[in-house]
Design goal:
Layout (H helix, E strand, L loop, with lengths): L1 H8 L6 E3 L21 E3 L7 E2 L11 E3 L7 E2 L11 E3 L20 E3 L20 E3 L20 E3 L17 H56 L5 H38 L7
Parallel strand pairs: 1-2, 2-4, 3-5, 4-6, 6-7, 7-8, 8-9
């Protein structure tokens, strides 16, 4: 068959193997014999349904084009292609991308438009060389907020995702505006997380104060029992001083209760006063 003729010829001198515009339905296992020479693999416009685990043997691969297929799944083995710089999976049936893409630390461009993606891996923020991500015309509801802080990323194309909530539709055409929206939401998320931690700390402190109050109450009860036992054994002056001491302890206990409640009320008021909402 003609496609096998292309395969048997092997990669060209520049490391390119062109298997495009054929009838391939699976990745041929024979690709593994080119693991030391294959740099650019072009599989566009075939009938592939997945990128299988055997892709992991192509450790020297720099570009992979499997656009215009019927791919529904990309195996995590693609993370072994650590020299991959360009990935084109446009016009397929993908609903997700593997988290292991973050292992392709040299990856610069991802073309994944016209698929069925509902989310992007959070691990994409670990790509230190990524410059462009094209996810137009998918079913995305969100994208990783941290992408706005990837210094090499210059362009995100995300039009055509009707359920995307991270930015108003009129801001998605401009990458700078999109990054601004992502940054505002990321800051909001960080503030909420910090305030949640502060709230938890206040709750812990309130619990500690309550424990101290319970301990003080128990001590007072013990002292009252001791004083009651001494009433019949000690002179009136000693009993009077003991009663005065009980009054002082009772006063201190009341103060502890008062300040514990005051601390609790202040913590709740602080939390309500410092709620933050993102602004565009």
């Amino acid at each position: 068959m003609e496609e096998y003729d292309d395969l048997s010829a092997g990669p060209a001198e520049d490391g390119t193997l062109d298997l495009s515009h054929n009838t391939w339905t699976v990745f041929p296992p024979e690709l593994s014999q080119f693991s030391r020479t294959l740099l650019h693999l072009d599989f566009k416009n075939n009938s592939l349904t997945q990128v299988p685990e055997c892709i992991s043997c192509l450790a020297l691969l720099q570009s992979l084009d499997v656009s215009l297929n019927q791919i529904e799944y990309i195996d995590k083995g693609i993370g072994q292609c650590i020299r991959l710089r360009s990935l084109n999976v446009s016009r397929n049936r993908l609903e997700s991308l593997p988290n292991e893409l973050s292992n392709c630390i040299l990856l610069q461009t991802i073309f994944a438009d016209q698929n069925r993606l509902t989310a992007l891996p959070e691990t994409l923020i670990d790509l230190i060389a990524i410059s462009m991500i094209d996810v137009r015309d998918n079913h995305l509801k969100s994208i990783p907020l941290g992408l706005c802080r990837v210094p090499t990323l210059k362009t995100i194309l995300c039009n055509g995702n009707n359920d995307l909530t991270v930015a108003p539709e009129h801001m998605r055409d401009d990458t700078d505006l999109l990054f601004h929206c992502l940054e505002m939401q990321l800051k909001f998320k960080e503030v909420i997380a910090a305030k949640s931690n502060q709230r938890d700390e206040l709750q812990i402190k309130a619990e500690e104060l309550r424990d101290e109050l319970n301990n003080a109450t128990n001590c007072i009860s013990e002292l009252e029992k001791d004083i009651a036992a001494l009433v019949w054994e000690r002179p009136d002056e000693y009993i009077r001083r003991k009663e005065r001491f009980v009054e002082l302890v009772k006063f201190a206990s009341d103060k502890i209760v008062f300040y514990w409640r005051l601390t609790k009320d202040a913590a709740l008021k602080w939390w309500n006063d410092h709620k933050t909402h993102p602004e565009y």
